[in-house]
Design goal:
Blueprint (H helix, E strand, L loop, with lengths): L2 H24 L22 H6 L24 H10 L4 H22 L11 E5 L5 H14 L8 E4 L11 H13 L3 E5 L13 H14 L5 E6 L1 H9 L2 H6 L2 E5 L4 H14 L3 E2 L1 H16 L8 H20 L6 H5 E2 L1 H4 L14
Parallel strand pairs: 1-4, 1-5, 2-3, 3-4, 6-7
Length: about 350
């Protein structure tokens, strides 16, 4: 193995280690915003957790089987902590306000019930609309945790599916498949991405069977199941209006706008910081111009936060190639990202400055 290959392997090992650590810390949060360590080993154990471990049967090799870690085994998070985390998210100001309003509504609803005051039926199912990469899954996960904190949901987990996870190819199988997903989501949030794809594509399509099964479960388990459907604006509007049952159960809508250039840059800086990278002043200015240009010239393929992630991975790869040509890279070299690392190709030019 020559020196260049050795340096590349060392850099890849650093990236792998950082990525694993960040995933543990982020709890798979796509944007990298730290979330509470629900289900982690350093969380306080619930009463009876120690006894549950004693009752576990041994495995085939004679070792004691580790008990299954469940969401309900840990105490709900404090609503103040969840609000603080919500405020730390980049952008999404209108969404944050909607979530805060919803929290207030649920809290007052519970207080009225405690004082034996009349309350109207409260539907917590929601429709999220917007382009890919705008934070819909992240907010759905946050809503699951908030609902558990408020005592609405017993577990607070998020189960994410799309059409393929609900619809089968033969008569009678779709209801069974959908019911299994619903059972897994009980006590938490069922998040259905691109839900408009459930609309029947032909006479032999079983999407309607999945919708009917879902609507029944939403009625039967409305006290411990929240369903959030998501997708592009117009298809979701047609989807909800196509079925009176859907219209009656989904009355809360949240629109997720595209992230602007400054918000995309804030995400990029956050990724760099969490992974131990530092942008030079020139690189920072170039990256900001690049993301502003990306936003201003976006098309149907614009991926918002996903584009930031892809760009970051490209930058890390390009930096590794640059360092491999150096005699003995220092720690500062390993951490520093320069303008050349941000170029998608050798002939890429700097974005033109915006007119003032």
């Amino acid at each position: 193995m020559d020196k260049k290959d050795s340096i590349i392997l060392q850099q890849l090992e650093v990236i792998r280690s950082m990525t694993e650590n960040n995933l543990r810390r982020m709890d798979n949060d796509f944007w990298g915003t730290p979330v509470a360590n629900v289900g982690k080993s350093d969380s306080p154990a619930s009463p009876g957790a120690g006894e549950a471990k004693k009752d576990q049967p041994p495995t085939a090799d004679g070792k004691e089987k580790e008990p299954e870690v469940r969401e309900e085994d840990f105490p709900p998070e404090k609503i103040e902590d969840l609000k603080a985390e919500l405020d730390s998210y980049i952008g999404l100001e209108a969404i944050k306000e909607e979530v805060r309003n919803l929290i207030n509504m649920v809290q007052v609803y519970k207080l009225r019930r405690e004082h034996d005051l009349p309350t109207t039926d409260m539907s917590l199912h929601m429709v999220f609309t917007g382009n890919p990469g705008t934070g819909k899954t992240m907010i759905a996960r946050m809503m699951a945790r908030i609902y558990r904190s408020l005592g609405i949901l017993s577990k607070g987990q998020l189960v994410e599916v799309d059409r393929s996870g609900l619809v089968a190819g033969y008569v009678g199988q779709t209801a069974i498949k959908t019911s299994k997903v619903i059972e897994k989501a009980m006590g938490g949030v069922l998040f259905i991405d691109e839900a408009y794809a459930l609309n029947g594509r032909s006479e032999n399509d079983f999407g309607q069977e999945a919708i009917d099964t879902l609507l029944k479960a939403m009625e039967d388990h409305r006290d411990d199941l929240v369903v959030i459907v998501a997708g592009y604006d117009e298809p979701m509007e047609k989807f909800i209006s196509s079925n009176p049952g859907l219209q009656s159960r989904f009355n809360k809508y949240m629109y997720f706008p595209d992230y602007n250039g400054e918000e995309l840059m804030a995400m990029f800086r956050s990724r760099c910081k969490k992974n131990g990278y530092v942008l030079t002043e020139e690189a920072d200015e170039f990256a900001l111009a690049l993301f502003c240009d990306m936003y201003e010239n976006r098309d149907d393929n614009f991926g918002n936060g996903r584009d930031v992630r892809n760009r970051f991975e490209d930058v890390v790869s390009r930096q590794a190639n640059r360092l491999a040509a150096m005699e003995a890279p220092t720690k500062d070299d390993l951490m520093t990202i320069i303008k050349a690392d941000l170029l998608a190709s050798e002939d890429e030019e700097e974005p033109a400055p915006e007119e003032k």
